[in-house]
Amino acid sequence: MNILITGAAGFIGSHTAERLVSLGHRVIGIDNFSDYYDPNLKRQNAKELASNGIHVLEMELCDEKSVAELPTNFDYIFHFAAQPGIAAHVTFDDYLKNNVVATKVVLDFAQSCPDLKLFVNIGTSSIYGLEAVCPESAAPMPASFYGVTKLAAEQLALQLSRENKISACSLRLYSVIGPRERPEKLFTKLIAAGVEGKVFPLFEGSESHLRSFTYVGDIVNGIVSVIGKEAIINGEVINLGTEKEYSTQQGIDAVEAVLKVKIQLAVKPKRRGDQERTKAVIDKARRLLNYNPQTTLLEAVKAQVDWFKNL
């Protein structure tokens, strides 16, 4: 199969690209190598992808002309590219451009691909709101610009499915961790603090927040399992994560246990829009995708520590 991955040099996109190639598919990636975090980290990911025969094109998805020049022989499109997170320095216009407008451009392109079997939108549990502990049928209540614009992107894809213009689904991911996690995310920051002897900034009250910390390998298992199942998942929203809940404090404890250090914490003011609890309800993913995450928190942290030490 010929597969296009947007955001291919990012955390989950790069792992998915590698997995798809290992399954015998031909993959082309797109990434704009934005400076939201150090672009050199994404270029390092792209270099690793290149060693596996995966070419990552540097391109802005909002550039309709450039996107229109891509080959149209794709069987699947996996759309990871987005403005992530809830950082205070990111404006609403950034979220709008990168999550909504860019998705519309990619969807317009998807409609020009005559052999396209499925457009896979990569969504987020942030769509549910401050507590993401519900099935896919629950009403979305996003509490951040990120969640709002990711919901809009999801609906743009599903709209085309409802109109029978393309087959599309959306996968809502929960708290993914593991090698290549972004530098501003919890575990990479914790590991960096432990390895480098730095203070870790902890948002007030967040140590009691509950998360479905899910290993990236388990998430990728769910993502790639959509191939060949377009007839049963067209128009569907599907949660991917683990049913297990861990507190942020348990995450801190796991990193300290693996590194065998005590991490010094500095409490910072509470962050607006931060989810208080996520617990993936994955009955639908089990039924439709035979999805079954197995990696423990400690195993995931060990893998991430090994990756970090080899950066």
Concise description?
The protein has 11 helices and 15 strands. The chain has helices at about 10-20, 40-50, 65-70, 90-110, 145-160, 185-195, 215-225, 230-235, 250-260, 285-290, 295-310, and strands at about 1-5, 25-30, 55-60, 75-80, 120-125, 130, 170-175, 175, 200-205, 210, 215, 235-240, 245, 265-270, 275-280.
Q: Look at the structure and give the mean pLDDT.
A: 94
Which word captures the global form?
Answer: globular
CATH architecture field of the largest domain: 3-Layer(aba) Sandwich
Portion of residues in helices?
25-40%
The rounded Rg comes to 19 Å
The CATH topology name of the largest domain reads: Rossmann fold
**What is the name of the CATH superfamily of the largest domain?**
NAD(P)-binding Rossmann-like Domain
Strand content: 15-25%
Strand order of the largest sheet: 3-2-1-4-5-7-12
Poorly predicted spans: none
Gap from first CA to last CA: 32 Å
- How many domains would you count in the coordinates? 2
Write the layout of secondary structure elements.
Elements: E1 2-6, H1 11-22, E2 26-31, H2 39-50, E3 55-58, H3 64-68, E4 76-79, H4 92-110, E5 118-124, E6 131-132, H5 145-162, E7 168-173, E8 176-177, H6 186-196, E9 200-203, E10 210-211, E11 214-215, H7 216-224, H8 230-233, E12 237-240, E13 246-247, H9 248-259, E14 265-268, E15 277-278, H10 283-289, H11 297-309
Helix pairs in contact: 1-2, 1-7, 4-5, 6-9, 6-11, 9-11
